[in-house]
Amino acid sequence: MILITGATGRTGKEAAQQLVAKGVKVRALVRNPAKAAALQAAGVELAPGDAGDAAAVRRALEGVSGIAIILPNGESQLALEKQLATLAAEAGVAHIVKVSSVESVPGAPNPVHRTHWESEEHIRSLGKAWTMVRPSFYLQNFLSNAATIKAEGKFYYPFGDKGAAVLTDSRDAGFFVAHVLSTPGHANKSYDITSHELLSFHQIAAVFTQELGRRIEYVPQDPAAYKAFLGRFVTSQWHLDAVCDIFAEISHGYVSRTTNTFAEVTGREPISLAQFIREHIQVFRA
Ligand SMILES: NC(=O)c1ccc[n+]([C@@H]2O[C@H](COP(=O)([O-])OP(=O)(O)OC[C@H]3O[C@@H](n4cnc5c(N)ncnc54)[C@H](OP(=O)(O)O)[C@@H]3O)[C@@H](O)[C@H]2O)c1
């Protein structure tokens, strides 16, 4: 039995579905079981509970051999992940898999990346087999640009003209999590998984133009104005500051390396930006 957190989210849903498709028994720790009805219908057992509720987590860990720790970025992420991993180790879980990110390195200045690194370090200290799955900028982030792409043929970020990103589809991240939990040989390995694409945001706009058959433009935004705009929606100051710091890093092209790890380990090619757009054509087409 594999326990998975974040199964109603982008990465976790794909991981749960892929594991079920492979015939692996999966249990999902979910805060809101109503949101997980489709997963349950697909054969995922639901364990109601918040990751911060130790009693609920202990119940969910009964009979579990492997856990996928997948939680969103936030001020409480480190404490939640450390507690989950510790409880898993105490419950005798043999293999702890964590979704982290490629930017998470020792001494990372950004709190999101530092959180991931410190969580990784905690997991490595527990004496259990571990695997770190480290994707880069999710293609799914562009779904939040669909409205302006549709209406105006434009999308807006504060990444300047030189900003660039190494892209990963969150479905590939979930697929990879399922792979390392269902095949041997991944104990104590750290995998930086990306697609083959390192693209500037102007180049990304060109791929949208090509796939949608009409001109799509990336329009760089003033960072301070963009932060003020985002602040209308993001309620946590910690999160707002962290995300805007990441934006500043992206505008300086801080992740500059793709890897071939996804294909080498899984035997299939990662999803490209063009493929992602084609598969979401109804979302982006005006
Ligand atoms: N976005 C990117 O570009 C990117 C790139 C690389 C790595 N990553 C990493 O990927 C990880 C997962 O991101 P994602 O995009 O898959 O997340 P997501 O779609 O936002 O999903 C988050 C999931 O976590 C669940 N959750 C949140 N708080 C919880 C709690 N206290 N207890 C139990 N469950 C809780 C949510 O459940 P509810 O449905 O109840 O809300 C949801 O299922 C993050 O750690 C992020 O750093 C992201």
SSE-based structural type? alpha/beta
Major β-sheet profile? 7 strands, parallel
- Low-pLDDT segments, ≥5 res: none
Spatial shape:
globular
CATH superfamily annotation:
NAD(P)-binding Rossmann-like Domain
Distance between the termini: 44 Å
Q: Could you characterize what this model shows?
A:
- The chain is of the alpha/beta class and 286 residues long.
- The protein has one domain: NAD(P)-binding Rossmann-like Domain (Rossmann fold).
- Helix content is 43%, strand content 18%.
- The chain has helices at 10-21, 37-41, 54-60, 77-90, 111-124, 146-152, 170-182, 201-212, 223-230, 237-251, 261-266, 273-279, 281-284, and strands at 2-5, 26-30, 45-48, 66-69, 95-99, 129-135, 137-138, 154-157, 164-168, 189-193, 198-200, 217-220.
- The chain has a seven-stranded parallel sheet, sandwiched between helices. It has a three-stranded mixed sheet with strand order 7-9-11. Strands 8-12 form a two-stranded parallel sheet.
- Strand 5, helix 5 and strand 6 (129-135) form a beta-alpha-beta unit.
- The termini are far apart.
- NADP nicotinamide-adenine-dinucleotide phosphate is lined by residues 5-12, 29, 31-32, 35, 50-52, 70-73, 80, 99, 101, 135-138, 141, 170.
- NADP nicotinamide-adenine-dinucleotide phosphate binds next to helix 1 and strand 7.
